[in-house]
Amino acid sequence: MKISVIIPAKDSPKELSRLLKALKKQRLRPNEVLVADSSKGLEVKTIAEKEGALVIRIPPEKFNHGLTRTLAAQKSKGDILVFFTQDACPAHPSAIKNLVESLNGQVAAAFGRQISPLKFGVLPFLHRLHNYPSHSLVISLEKIDHLKLRAIFFSNSFSAYKKGALQEIGWFEKVPALEDQLAAAKLLLSGYQLAYVANAVAFHGHPFSFKKEWKRFTDMGRFYAQHFWIYDSFGKPENEARKYILFVWRELKKRKKTCLFFPFLAQQVMRWVAYRWGLCKFRKS
Q1: pLDDT at 284
Q2: Contacts from 133-137 at CB under 8 Å and sequence distance 24+?
């Protein structure tokens, strides 16, 4: 089966160069690499073409998390589509191999473990540690009652899909964020399974940015406002937030870093306000 790697890229050419070089060291190398370039300059295009990738030009103002990935997926030749964000990078040579091998039987999509380098700080590291544990999991429709919203937690920063299954659910939709979780929900409700693959690891992290976090969580609120049915099928994200806060408190105590808990709480309040603002604003419109 042919494998296509798809990377939406916007500026940050050094990160893209690191990722493209790492792909060439994979034990299971992709048959093609497509870079969806929505940067303002030519540096991303130059680096991508130098590393042998096919570049699909997306005007910056037309970039969309769902539609951009759909466009690249429809142009790809692969039977298996592996997605990365440009700031993610395989942590070992078997990362893609382990991820793709999990797509057997009814498993239509899989995502790998992400680890945030400690250079970005303890809180980003704990955020990834909470969301990406050390044990693998196959998720089916029967597990929704137990897992609730965690059943559709999914990340296109490092993921793989059977192209036919993705096409069957109508590809990725035009959404401000969480195109991966929406696709995961639709796949589960269509009778497919999802897999979290703990031995397929990627490094992925970035420092806290108030502006970016505000936009991201506002977009998340907007997403749930537009897809309110997810609440009925899987539950509300507020329930997961409580578990996350308790997890971080325990881990900070274990590491004797409790001084970081109050900055962490302030960050969570900001995220909640942004999420609620997006949710209320777009439910009324």
Answers
A1: 59
A2: 133/198, 134/198, 135/198, 136/102, 136/195, 136/196, 136/197, 136/198, 136/199, 137/195, 137/196
